[in-house]
């Protein structure tokens, strides 16, 4: 039975059991009340099942099990890479988990240069240096690898500067 407005990624039984069509990964302070909300509303109006973490997280929290489950239970992730995205270790944890799953990824380069994302240069460079001090080489290396991968995927560039 066809689902006219639902996002269909695969006809395999595993894909049909996924709870969410889209997982939105974003830095709340950059895009929550503007770009991300508008994207969420537009997708939802098309009957696309979108997971949006509205709670935000506080300093010191680990990535919530709910977020991990939503990532694992989504067919596609839209990653909204914004100026402060790499400043958040939670965003980077989400990004790494999304990349580990090897599902469809659609990056949105929101006021960031895709080449800066790929190479972690420009404003992202300092974020990764700060994370290195706190989290160490192994974890930050995993985040850098995920950022490099996503930076190399053709996506949408949205720049209002």
UniProtKB/TrEMBL annotation:
- Matching SUPFAM superfamilies, A to Z? Toll/Interleukin receptor TIR domain (SSF52200)
Q: Which UniProt keywords apply?
A: NAD
**Can you tell which superkingdom this protein's organism belongs to?**
Eukaryota
Looking at the record, the residues that make up the TIR domain are 18-161
Gene Ontology terms describing biological process: signal transduction
Q: Name one Pfam family in it.
A: TIR
Query: What InterPro entries does its record include?
Result: TIR_dom, Toll_tir_struct_dom_sf
Q: Does the keyword NAD apply?
A: yes
Coiled-coil ranges (or none): none
Query: What protein does this entry describe?
Result: TIR domain-containing protein
Annotated source species: Populus trichocarpa x Populus deltoides
């Amino acid at each position: 039975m066809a689902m006219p407005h639902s996002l269909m990624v695969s006809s395999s039984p595993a894909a049909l059991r996924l709870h969410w069509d889209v997982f939105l990964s974003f830095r709340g302070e950059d895009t929550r009340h503007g770009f991300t909300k508008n994207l969420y509303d537009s997708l939802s109006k098309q009957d696309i099942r979108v997971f949006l973490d509205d709670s935000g997280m506080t300093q010191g929290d680990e990535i919530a099990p709910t977020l991990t489950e939503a990532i694992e239970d989504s067919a596609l992730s839209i990653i909204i890479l914004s100026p402060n995205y790499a400043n958040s270790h939670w965003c980077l944890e989400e990004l790494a988990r999304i990349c580990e799953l090897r599902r469809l990824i659609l990056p949105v380069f929101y006021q960031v240069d895709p080449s800066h994302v790929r190479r972690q240069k420009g404003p992202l460079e300092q974020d990764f240096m700060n994370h290195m001090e706190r989290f160490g080489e192994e974890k930050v290396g995993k985040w850098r690898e995920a950022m490099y991968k996503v930076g190399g995927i053709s996506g949408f560039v949205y720049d209002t500067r």
